[in-house]
Structures are given as structure tokens and as C-alpha cells.
TrEMBL record:
Gene3D superfamilies: Macrophage Migration Inhibitory Factor. It holds the Pfam family Tautomerase_2. This is Tautomerase family protein. It comes from Cryobacterium glaciale. Signal peptide: none annotated. InterPro entries: Tauto_MSAD, Tautomerase/MIF_sf. SUPFAM superfamilies: Tautomerase/MIF.
Length: 132
């Protein structure tokens, strides 16, 4: 059950399609339930997103910044497969590969509260999701 933050400029008019594409990729690669969807999409002035060349030799034109917060335990190969699938799904809605920037943050069951000030994975109200 990843929590996904997506930031993009107001120049993009397909915000829902971008969010849907990221979710489709996560469902496809990680096998999470379709309704296990937690996303925050922030549309901002282009000047508030700075994503310069990291030494890879390409320029971004209109970056989409994606942060994925999820439980630890997936392999590097699984993460790479996710990054690739996100890029493919975003390409289908008009986001160029060089404009896809992903940050991935892992945590444990104690790091999540779904409401009422309780860590439901620890209290047993929710089962800790099994990794594929």
C-alpha cells in the first residue's frame, strides 16, 4: 500500500491521467489491490519545480516528480521493474522519459497510521501486506 506523491507543473493538463498511469504501474508490478490507492497530486507553477541535469546528459522539459513511500523488503530488481513500468505508463499519457523523476522511500509497519492515531499494522486492525 504505497503512498504516492506526484508533483507536476500547471502546464500539464492531464493530472488525472498521470496519477492513473502511476497507479496502474504499481498495481501491475507489485500486485497490490486496485483500490489500495493513496495518492497526493500537487500542481504547481513550473518555476517551483527544479530538476536539473544530474550528469546524465539530458534536459528535462516539464518534470513529473514522483515520491513512493512503501514497506521495505522489495528487491532492487522489483524496484527497477516498477520504475520502468511507471515510465512506460507515463509515456502513454504524454510524459517524456527524461521528465520522469522517482524517489523511493521504504518504511516498516510501525511507520503507518490510517486514522484515529493508531498504527493499525501494529494493533492488528490491518494485516501487514505480504510482499509478492
Amino acid at each position: 500500500m504505497p503512498l504516492v506523491r506526484i508533483d507536476h507543473s500547471e502546464a500539464r493538463t492531464n493530472s488525472a491521467a498521470v496519477a492513473d498511469a502511476v497507479h496502474v504501474a504499481i498495481v501491475a508490478v507489485y500486485g497490490i489491490p486496485v483500490r489500495d490507492r493513496f495518492q497526493v497530486v500537487t500542481i504547481r507553477p513550473a518555476a517551483t519545480i527544479i530538476a536539473e541535469d544530474a550528469g546524465l546528459g539530458f534536459e528535462r522539459t516539464d518534470p513529473v516528480i514522483i515520491q513512493i513511500f512503501t514497506q521495505r523488503g522489495r528487491s532492487d530488481a522489483e524496484k527497477q521493474a516498477l520504475y520502468s513500468e511507471i515510465a512506460l505508463c507515463l509515456a502513454a499519457v504524454g510524459v517524456a522519459g527524461e521528465d520522469v523523476f522517482i524517489g523511493y522511500v521504504e518504511s516498516g509497519p510501525q511507520d503507518w497510521s490510517f486514522g484515529f492515531g493508531r498504527a493499525q499494522y501494529l494493533t492488528g486492525e490491518l494485516a501487514v501486506p505480504a510482499l509478492p
